[in-house]
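Sharing in case it's useful to others searching the archive later.

Someone asked me privately for the predicted structure of ABC transporter permease, so I'm posting the question and my answer publicly. Question first, with the sequence:
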Amino acid sequence: MEGGLAMIISLLNGMEVQIPGIFNVEGVAAILFYFTMYAFIGWLLENSYNFITKGTFFKANFLWGPFKPMYGIAPLLLVFLISPSTHWAVVVLLCFFIPTLVEYASGALLQKLFNRQWWDYSDAPMQLHGHICLPFSLCWVFLSMICLKWVHPAMVTMYGVIEPFWTWIGAAAGLYFLADFVLAIRKHATEDFVTEESTNPIQ
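And my answer, the predicted structure tokens:
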């Protein structure tokens, strides 16, 4: 137990997180960059896991493009809530609860709006409504700490390099996400309507 605790503290020592401002154009541009990158990394992560476990790389996605918004939102929340002065125990708790809450809210909202689950943990131990489960929440802890310790600093460096060009690229990315969300909502709403019609005995 003490060895694991020492490992966590060692992992978090020296963690530096850039917290972009959100009340100016530069801050919004930075947030959009980080969201885009993490949403894409999340898409790669989920599809790679699907390939390892099921032999198929492409997994059903809410959006048309290769992005998972849930993975874009959770790291941003962690970056805003955690600073270099945050106690390691608080960091661990946030790395557990923030991704878990984002995952549950995403799953519950999608099920409510479209009557469909894009993931289902019903067969996993200590699960809640199939949206979250303890084993994956523990995975989120380690992935989040790795993200904060190594991935996000690399993202900050990358953004510093492309920032002069991101003003134009970011505008296009914002329009792309807006169009993708609208098209995805139309697609899944239509699928849900067709499914209800096809299963309605009164025809």
